[in-house]
Structure formats: C-alpha cells, structure tokens
Amino acid sequence: MVKPKAPIFRRIKIDKTKSNNFTIIFFHGTNHSCLKYNYTYEPDGKIKKNYFLNKLSNISDLFLYNRPEETLRFNYEQGISNDGVDYPNQTIDSHITNLHKFLVDEKIQKPYVLVSHSIGSLYALKFAQKYPKEIKHVFLIDPIQYTEKVAREFYSPPISHSDLDGHIQIIKNTKSSKTRVEKSLSVLDSNTYSIPYFAPKLNRPLTTFFNVDTKSDTHKKFTLPYVEELKKYNKSNYNNYYYYDRDHYLNETNPQGIVTKIRKELNIVN
Question: Candidates 3.40.50.1820, 2.60.40.10, 3.40.1550.10, 1.10.1040.10; correct CATH number of 11-155+194-265?
C-alpha cells in the first residue's frame, strides 16, 4: 500500500490476486486513522512498521473507512490547513447509510467482512445490523465495552451546536494556541463518543478480541458484562479471545496473531 501524504477518506485497496470473493471493511478507533494501523507508535516517539493492514489485505480485498469528522484532527496532526474543511455532525445511522451507498455505487464486492477497533466496533455492529444479508463475519478488536449501564453512566451527551461551532473555529484558526486546539479536539472526541446505546443483536458470526488488564477491575466492571451481553444477542454465532496485559492497540502488539485468528474464523487455510 502506498502511503499518501494525507489520509484519503473512503480509500480502497484492491488486489485481485488475493481475493477470496469477499471484501474486508476496516473501521478505525478514535484519533487513529486507518492508515496508522500499519505502524506501532513507541512511547519514546519512534515509529515502526507492524504490517497489520498488509497482513489483513493478504486475506482478501481491503477497504479502509476513515470517518470524515476526524479530518480536522488528522490535518492538524500533519500540519495541513483545515480552512474550508466541513465537520459533518453525523449520527451513527447516517454514517452507515452513506458508507453503504458508497460501497454500492462503487460496486465493492459483497459479502463484507467487518473488522473494527475500539469505538469503530459500534459502526461495524450497526452496519451488520442494518445490512445483515450482506455480512459474512464481524470482528471487533478490543471494542468499546458499551453496555446500557456504561452508556448511561460514563459517556457525556452530545455538545450543543453553538459549542460545537466554537470548537471547530478554534481548530481552524491558525492563530489559536496549541493548548486551545488540543482542548477543542478533545471535546470533539467526546462528541464522537456521544452515540446512543443500542443492543448489538446480530444474525451473523461475531468474533471479539479483548485486552484484559489484570492490574485493574476493568475486566469485571466492563469487559465481562459486555461479553455476556454479546453472548445473549449472538447465542450461536459468537466467539471470544482474551489477550492479557496487551496494549489497547492489539494490532500493534500482536498483528500476526490477530490475523491468524481471523483466518481461522473465516476457515481460510491458504
């Protein structure tokens, strides 16, 4: 994959020599564009290639979906002007509807295998719920543990339109201080999280990969209740893998292991 100078939204990576007659669609997490998932970001600032996307594309054709409202952050991080960039305050449903229309218009081969990370899991689950007949399998990598209890207690409501516009102007203003811009970007992150809870009922195979922190009670408070909920809504089609004390970006710490298990779940032996 050729790395572009700036993220290209709805970028398609096609290699017909590796096709298994389905298309993989990848949904990124917050503040981490799809293209970054091919790299490991060390605490000391060093960046190294981990080839996660390359390994994933070796299974079949790969489609990378970068949510358009993240453009402001991606441009800012790369020193690209945000002048004239719109912030589409979309609902999760409008995201999925627009993405599906694009896939249909571009004649992207069905069925779809959905692979997602973190909050991207909510988009993958919603897509699978809305278009179940077009889905082959859903994979969630360390998904956001979004039970109804968690949704009500730990996530803020959407910010007002006036506040939203104010933060967007701060980000676009080249004279704004770094502190103010990063604070506004953080607020928009919270806006991204303000997604209504929905029961993840699927009639398609679902596989999850969870990072379990053995030094905290997060596993008991969030992960276990979410796994039980997924079991309830996907009784005959659910499988789960635990990774102990891994980084939240499991693709960075064990890219080949994740891809190997995806292959196994898809019954691909080549």
Answer: 3.40.50.1820
